[in-house]
Design a protein that fits this description.
By secondary structure, this protein is mainly α. The longest helix is centred in the middle third of the chain and has 128 residues. The protein is rod-shaped. The chain has a domain of 80 residues. The chain is built from three helices and no strands.
C-alpha cells in the first residue's frame, strides 16, 4: 500500500527559494549568453578546441566532444529561451489584466464624468432660476422703494398742509378771540 500524501497548491518555502534561485541563475545565464562577452568566450573556446589538433589530439575526438558540448549547450539555450518566453508571456498576461482593470476604471470615470456633467447642468439651471428670482426680487425692492419714496413725499406734503392748516386755524382762532374780546368790550 502506497502512503497517502496531500497535494497542496502552496510550495514549501525551501522549494520556493530553490526555484527562485534557479530562476535567477537562468535569467542571468540567458542575459549573459546574449551578450558580446559570451560571443568572445565562445569564439575563443571553439578556436581553442580546434587548435588542439596542433597539440596532437585527434580531430575525430575534438569533433565528437565539441559536437556533444554544442548539442548540450543548444538544449540548455532552448530551455533558457523557453523560460524567457514563459516569463514574458506571464508578464504580458499581467499587463493585459492591468489594462482590463484600467479600462474598467476609465469607463467608470467616464460614466461618473457624464453624471457630474448632468449635475452641473442641473445646478446651472437652478442658478439661472435663482438669478431670475433675484432679478424679480430686485424689481420688487425697487418698486417698494419707489412706493416708500412716494409715500414719504405724500406724508411730508400732508404734514406741510396740516401745518399750514393749523397755522391758519390758529390765526383764525386768534382773530376770533380778538373779535370776541372787542365785542365784549363793546357791550
Amino acid at each position: 500500500m502506497l502512503p497517502i500524501t496531500t497535494c497542496s497548491m502552496e510550495k514549501e518555502p525551501s522549494s520556493v527559494q530553490k526555484t527562485g534561485a534557479l530562476h535567477k541563475a537562468a535569467e542571468k545565464t540567458t542575459h549573459w549568453i546574449g551578450s558580446v562577452p559570451s560571443l568572445i568566450v565562445h569564439t575563443i573556446l571553439f578556436t581553442g578546441s580546434f587548435s588542439l589538433v596542433f597539440v596532437g589530439v585527434q580531430l575525430d575526438h575534438i569533433l565528437s566532444v565539441v559536437t556533444t558540448l554544442v548539442s548540450l549547450e543548444a538544449i540548455y539555450l532552448a530551455i533558457f529561451i523557453q523560460m524567457a518566453v514563459n516569463d514574458n508571456t506571464a508578464s504580458l498576461d499581467a499587463v493585459e489584466e492591468n489594462l482590463d482593470e484600467i479600462q474598467e476604471d476609465v469607463d467608470e470615470i467616464q460614466k461618473d464624468v457624464g453624471e457630474i456633467e448632468k449635475d452641473i447642468d442641473e445646478i446651472q439651471e437652478d442658478v439661472d432660476e435663482i438669478q431670475e428670482d433675484v432679478d424679480e426680487i430686485q424689481e420688487d425692492v425697487d418698486e417698494i422703494q419707489k412706493d416708500d419714496t412716494e409715500e414719504e413725499m405724500d406724508t411730508k406734503q400732508n404734514k406741510l398742509v396740516l401745518t399750514k392748516i393749523e397755522s391758519q386755524l390758529s390765526d383764525l382762532l386768534t382773530q376770533i378771540e380778538k373779535m370776541k374780546s372787542e365785542m365784549n368790550m363793546k357791550k
